[in-house]
Amino acid sequence: MKLSHLALVIVLSATTAFGVMKVAPQSATTPTATAKESAFQRVDKAGVLRCGYIIWAPFLAQDMATKKMSGIVFDYVEAIAQELGWKVEWTEEVGWGNYAEGLKTNRYDAMCMPVYETGLRAKFSLMTTSIYNNGLYAYGRADDARFDASMDSLNDPSVTLAFVEGDAVSTALKKNVFPRAKEMLLPQLIDQGQYLMTVGTRKADAGFASPYAINKYNEGAEAKLKLIGGQKPVSVYGNALAVQMGEYDLKFALDSAIQALLKNGAAKQIIEAYRKDGFLLPTEY
To answer: What is the three-class DSSP state of 185?
Structure first.
């Protein structure tokens, strides 16, 4: 190669390298997209926790005339929000099986009707620390003696059990505990009174509820209900609030508030007011 050609190659190479060096810093300073606001940032900025909820007495009840809410869930969630310096907005009534969709589409910030902690629910919503535990009991009609001997007698093809369609707990009970029984699927927005009436009116042979709910139903019902299996629950569940998957900051804030209420005695005071309903403090307390 001639010296003149070699000199030209060197000059061009240096020029190209210099151009790359000049261009690279410009691309590095290109503005990036603004980070999406987290659920915690949104709630804390507004000072309002928007709640999805289910009317399910005695946990959460609503006076139809005044629209005022009451129950252990109302008292507990209001206390959690107060601990964080927030207010509560009871935004939307939802169903057991579709509440995660409202979280995903940002219609509300948390599912404030506590849900039973199950592996299936953990796949589509992020759950907080349990706020209380309670048992789920089988019940049937008071004049039906077929199941007096054992709760196992419910697991029979001749028996129809009432379940809520799309609900994770109903799905687990049917699959794991009563696989042989027939199922009657009820709509997600059914209230507890209507659910219990399904058994009272003989549309189903048995269902699942708390002892308090059964006693409350019996106060005004002609066809009385009774527990099946004595005082033994079908299962005991932790009850937790739920937020959208990935919203860890909001979950941790709610967890901290729940732990504060458990440690300072406020949670115990709330639960004691409803002790007759069978609510229990979480075992970790």
So the answer is: strand
In the structure encoding, which two tokens stand for residue 97, read together?
A: 């099986």
Report the relative pairing of strands 160-164 and 132-141 from DSSP bridges.
unpaired
In one-letter notation, the amino acid at residue 190 is: I
Q: What is the mean pLDDT of each run of 10 residues along the chain (285 residues)?
A: 43 43 46 76 98 90 93 96 99 93 97 92 94 89 93 96 90 93 92 91 94 85 89 87 98 98 94 69 49
Residue 240 DSSP code: E
Give dist(CA 42, CA 39) in Å, integer. Answer: 5
Residues constituting the chain: 285
For residue 1, which amino acid is it? M
**In the chain, what are the domains?**
39-133+238-277 (3.40.190.10), 134-235 (3.40.190.10)
d(C-alpha 26, C-alpha 77), whole Å: 51
β-pairing verdict for 182-186 and 160-164: parallel
pLDDT of residue 65: 93
Please enumerate in sequence order all residues whose Cβ is within 8 A of that of 116, keeping only pairs 6 or more positions apart, or say none: 136, 168, 169, 237, 238, 239
**DSSP code for 60:** B
This prediction has a pTM of 0.75
Q: DSSP labels for 113-179?
A: EEEE--TTGGGTSEE-S--EEEEEEEEEETT--TTSS-GGGGSSTT-EEEEETT-HHHHHIIIII-T
Radius of gyration, CA atoms only, the chain = 28
